[in-house]
Design goal:
The chain has about 180 residues and is mostly helical. Helix 2 crosses helix 3. The chain is elongated and about 60 Å long.
């Protein structure tokens, strides 16, 4: 991929370079996963793409496992996160799938029957990438802070070095523009 999409260290450093203020980190920690959930909830308003290939009652909450746009997005996020890091990615994937099932349950409970007219958001690739990475990186930050988790030894140190380099590069560009 063009700029190391699956290079966790580089991506986490880029994310950290933009989100290195304590207030900003707190806001992201509180808000990013609810925003992902809200996006999945909106995806529940799309027509079903198919049915689960299992007999009714095979899984708990199966009536809420609707294969819709919300499912496609949750699976894409889940696979992306697992590719970034197997351990934290598996936890993030489980959270994505839990959000998918729960958002379908909420949509059914509230009685939504909206159908989109085949419109899709016109987001640029870099924005899609930013939306995908934010929930995983917030989870990774929480795991690091409260559990001391590192995807591999020296990860945090390497990310900090890259983050500082990214911040320095950004400041130099900013100074050149203002000069």
């Amino acid at each position: 991929m063009a700029w190391g999409v699956f290079d966790l260290e580089t991506q986490f450093a880029r994310y950290g370079a933009y989100h290195n203020n304590a207030t900003n980190i707190f806001i992201h920690t509180i808000c990013v996963w609810p925003l992902l959930y809200t996006g999945l909830l909106l995806g529940c308003f799309t027509p079903a793409l198919g049915l689960l290939p299992f007999s009714p009652g095979a899984f708990p909450f199966q009536e809420y496992m609707i294969l819709n746009l919300s499912f496609v997005v949750a699976v894409a996020y889940a696979l992306f996160y697992i590719m970034m890091d197997k351990k934290a990615g598996t936890l993030a994937a489980a959270l994505c799938l839990l959000c998918w099932v729960n958002s379908n349950a909420l949509a059914q409970r509230l009685g939504f029957s909206l159908a989109w007219k085949k419109r899709s958001p016109a987001l640029l690739d870099n924005l899609i990438q930013a939306f995908m990475m934010a929930p995983f990186f917030v989870l990774l930050e929480v795991l690091q802070k409260f559990c001391g988790y590192e995807p591999y030894p020296g990860f945090q140190k390497a990310v900090r070095a890259k983050m500082q380099a990214n911040i320095k590069e950004w400041r130099l560009k900013k100074q050149k523009k203002s000069a």
